[in-house]
Amino acid sequence: MKREKLDLDEGDGYAALKAHVASKAGLARERYGPTIDAAALGRVLEDRDILRYPTELVFDSSALRPGEFAHAEPAGAGAERRYVIYVHEQFEGRPDVLPLLVAYHIPSVNYSDLVTSEEAELFGATLLGLEVEDYYQRVCALADELGGSGT
Fold first, then answer.
1. pLDDT in tens, 96-109
2. In the chain, domain spans
């Protein structure tokens, strides 16, 4: 059987990425929501249907650039590949804001450098049941608490 040649461009790939990001966030919200609190976030991080790699949270600003509230970083390689999401220790003990901050970096675990702030905001908003602009404003307000601009 001969396949029909597909005529796809970069825009098609981008649309597919956005749809996949939204799908993963929707799956997480369906499984662990509708309220995603710190406990539900922990279950999201353990779910390999949502995150490709084991992921742990570490509160340590020494791994962050100035103004960054969090950052996802690969650790290990091959079958041992995992990720660490470093979160500024200023947010430790604030479980009410942890899902907002960490959700932004979950797409980086799944898609690495392919994601932009647009996909990060889409994932976070979808996971938390917010409009993208509302999610963005909440994350910006938290980042502003650090006294610098960053993600």
1. 999 999 999 999 99
2. 11-144
